[in-house]
Amino acid sequence: MKTFEDLKSQWEEQSQPEIPNDGSKIVMQRINDIQNKQRITNAVLLTTTMVLIGFFFYVNAYSSLVVSLGLLLMIGSLIVRIMIEFFSIKALERIDFTKDAVTFKTDMISYYKKRITTHYVATPIILALYATGFILLLPSFKQNLSQGFYRYIVVSAIVILIVMVFFIWKQIQKELNSLKQLKS
Fold first, then answer.
1. Is the pLDDT reported for residue 126 higher than 90?
2. pLDDT at 40 over 80
3. DSSP the chain
4. What is the rounded radius of gyration, in angstroms, for the C-alpha atoms of the chain?
5. Rounded CA separation 49/86 (Å)
6. Domain assignment present for 10
7. What is the pLDDT of residue 21?
8. What does the pLDDT look like over 129-183, one tens digit per residue?
9. Which residues contact 88 (CB under 8 A, 6 or more apart)?
10. Is 59 within a domain?
11. Of 38, 43, 63, 143, which residue is most buried, by most CB within 10 angstroms?
């Protein structure tokens, strides 16, 4: 019995991790930060979508099947992403952080898994569709624009794509790190 008493004594003498007084405030702040970033993303995507829709009508894209298809792919991919982010914001709002810790953690893990799917499955597909739409527009640009301006569009599109992918990757890493901290 001496061994059991020793183990019990050692167990009771372990230092207990301190629960921060403002723990719920920290959780709420992180959730609010994630929601705000998603709202900003949606605002940027919605603005880009509106510009593309305006461009669609400005260039009479409906008169050319290839141009229409290219712009519709670009617009459609952005709309899909906007909807994904909108539903993600709503899902995060539905998580009740006042529930017990086990339920909250389960809800956060479920949300986290959905965001991983969004970032590592949906985002690459959406980017590929957007890029495909842009590539479909290139022959029309080449035909209707000067050689210099056409080169400028191609080069700037490549640079923008690289910067955008890097920015998206960094944002994904930040969001996933925040979610990882919240779920643990």
1. yes
2. yes
3. -HHHHHHHHHHHHSPPPPPPTTHHHHHHHHHHHHHHHHHHHHHHHHHHHHHHHHHHHHTTGGG-HHHHHHHHHHHHHHHHHHHHHHHHHHHHHH--TTS-HHHHHHHHHHHHHHHHHIIIIIHHHHHHHHHHHHHHHHHHHHHHS-HHHHHHHHHHHHHHHHHHHHHHHHHHHHHHHHHHHHH-
4. 24
5. 15
6. no
7. 61
8. 999 999 999 998 888 889 998 899 999 989 988 988 888 888 888 877 877 776 6
9. 38, 114, 115, 118
10. yes
11. 38
Residue 5 domain-assigned (yes or no): no
Environment class of 127 (CB within 10 Å of its CB; exposed 0-12, middle 13-18, buried 19+) = middle
Nearest Cα to Cα of residue 95 among 112, 117, 116, 119: 112
Identity of residue 128: A
The residue among 69, 71, 81 whose CA lies nearest residue 164 is: 81
Residues written for the chain:
184
Whether 8 is covered by a domain: the verdict is no
What is the residue-averaged pLDDT of the chain?
83
Tens of pLDDT, residue by residue over 132-143, are: 999 999 998 888
Residue 32: what pLDDT? 81
- Residue 74: φ, ψ to 5°: -65, -50
The domain of 70 spans 25-183
Confidence (pLDDT) at 27: 72
What is the number of domains present in the chain? 1
Residue whose structure tokens are 């009508």: 57
